[in-house]
Amino acid sequence: MRIAVIAANGRLGSIFVEEALAAGHSVRAGVRGESRLSPHSNLEVVQCDATRPEELRKLLKDQQVVVSALGHVKGSSGDVQTIATRKILEVMQEQGIKRFVDVTGTGVRFPGDKIGLVDVLLNLAVKIIDPPRVKDGIDHERLLRTSNIDWTTIRILKLQDVTIQPFELLLHGPTKWYVGRQEVARAMLEVIEKSSFIKQAPIIGKPTKEKK
Question: Is 212 a domain residue?
């Protein structure tokens, strides 16, 4: 598949690019500033600010899937995910691209979610310390739900630099207490390759059964 990746030079985005290339996909990586991605025959790197439609058009042209690894970093606005998602959806609509995959926190709730105590406490702390961040996740998800694209949002509780562990995508959780970036990247690639969880927001959880 031809996959456009937004925020490809971030910690999550760069890992997703590696995973997608290793799986045989072609990747057009949108970066800001100097690229830290290793050269690859199936990799094209372009400059892209996800809030600028003209740069998004260049990134998304002739692609089949759009992946956003955009997140909140130091210096970013509190509503960066919502602003970028709105622009991304507009350009996808223009170019006839249907598939979109991104990531957000478990503070974005859906009916039927299995919410554990650790999940409740950590999200409460985030709401107290950084309320715009939680609102941004909720608002961006509302944009996706009211769109006509085939979106999937991977939900996580806490992202850390840890060795990849077994995981399973669960529609309503419960969530793992923390996940590694490689787990998230593989989860994103899994829903792309399987065309699974369309218009849904699965949670990365522990395996519910042994896989043969």
Answer: no
